[in-house]
Design goal:
This protein has about 210 residues and is an all-alpha fold. The protein contains eleven helices and no strands. Helix 4 packs antiparallel against helix 5, helix 4 runs parallel beside helix 6 and helix 6 packs antiparallel against helix 7. The longest helix has 18 residues.
């Protein structure tokens, strides 16, 4: 990347390279691991300083918010996610728009604003009626409702997840199965609990949907 500066590459090109490199470092593997957010953060910040604030800036702000939160900066991450939301409606890609709402929902929940988090989860799910990230949004929303002791609603949301989604990560599948067990136990649903526990055990051993 330093070579680009020495070669006199323009800001747009360098910003694109910095963004691509930062996104690569922040990429998580199928099991949710492997991201190097501490290394990704400076590249994403440089990209933000170099690139024009066009429609795509919203998605860059979302990625930067994720990296900031992973590095322990909740306040900065929340501010960055709110900046992303300002331009989210301009994005033509519905999935990108939904993910910005989902990122803001996660951060609001982490800051204790469950009502605000729920609103943004609802908006994200409404924007994204299908697709590879819908299950993840529903899973996080169900988890929020469970934490709030709204288990009947949490179970309803959890049951809306598509068990045939081929893009679902094994870690998300496992978390869904464990979440259903916790919900059913709290609800006293002994009729459905044994099957849920078997399902959770199977997924923990590596069996997928």
């Amino acid at each position: 990347l330093d070579a680009l500066v020495r070669l006199g590459i323009d800001d747009q090109c360098r910003g694109d390279v910095e963004w691509a490199w930062g996104a690569l470092l922040a990429h998580q593997g199928p099991d949710g691991s492997g991201a190097r957010f501490d290394e990704a953060l400076p590249h994403l910040r440089v990209a933000r300083s170099l690139l024009p604030k066009d429609d795509w800036h919203a998605d860059l702000d979302r990625q930067l918010s994720h990296a900031m939160h992973a590095n322990g900066d909740l306040r900065g991450a929340l501010a960055m996610a709110q900046a992303a939301l300002v331009n989210a409606s301009k994005l033509s890609d519905l999935e990108d728009r939904a993910l910005i709402h989902g990122r803001l929902a996660d951060l609001l929940a982490a800051s204790g604003d469950n009502d605000g988090a729920e609103q943004h989860f609802k908006e994200a799910i409404q924007i994204l009626p299908q697709g590879p990230n819908r299950n993840l949004l529903l899973l996080r929303y169900a988890g929020l409702l469970h934490v709030a002791h709204r288990d009947d609603e949490a179970l309803d949301i959890a049951n809306r997840l598509d068990p045939q989604d081929p893009s679902a990560r094994p870690s998300d599948q496992q978390e869904l199965a464990r979440l259903k067990v916790r919900i059913l136990r709290r609800l006293g649903r002994n009729d459905a609990l044994p099957a849920a526990e078997r399902d959770a055990a199977a997924k923990t051993r590596g069996t997928v949907w």
